[in-house]
Amino acid sequence: MKTYDWIVVGAGITGAALAYELVKKDCKVLLLEQYATPRNATRYSYGGLAFWCGVTPLTRQLCDEGIARHRILSEELDADTEFRKLDLLLTISADTDPASVAASYTRFAIPPKLLSLKEACELEPLLNQEVIAGALTVKHGHIHPGKTTTRLHQRLFACRW
Asked: Both 151 and 130 in a single domain?
């Protein structure tokens, strides 16, 4: 019978990443997964990395460390996680004051920029101008969750646990 330091239940993006980081710290890890291919959150995830939204010292630290980690993960895994920064567009409903909404984001690590209705529609021409008063935009991290998880699995199974 083997002895493990950690048992991780679920080999999706979160479980695979946790198991990978623990193995890098020389922990013996048992990674358990019910299905051969992901059927839950990883399968439907869009891979967003909201590094901009920390509001407390701890969440800002986590955001900073998370984005720094993803900037080097492709190289470390020797595979493209498709890390990139995208413009996230957050629409503001027509019955809401855009300045008030923008003010509610000022405590975030990187507050989104307020856009007029015209500017929002220039960025995203398919927006329904009848139902929005404007939008906010901010750079948002993104990875390919399926490719990242697959490569984490490959690296984990190549390790001797």
From this structure: no
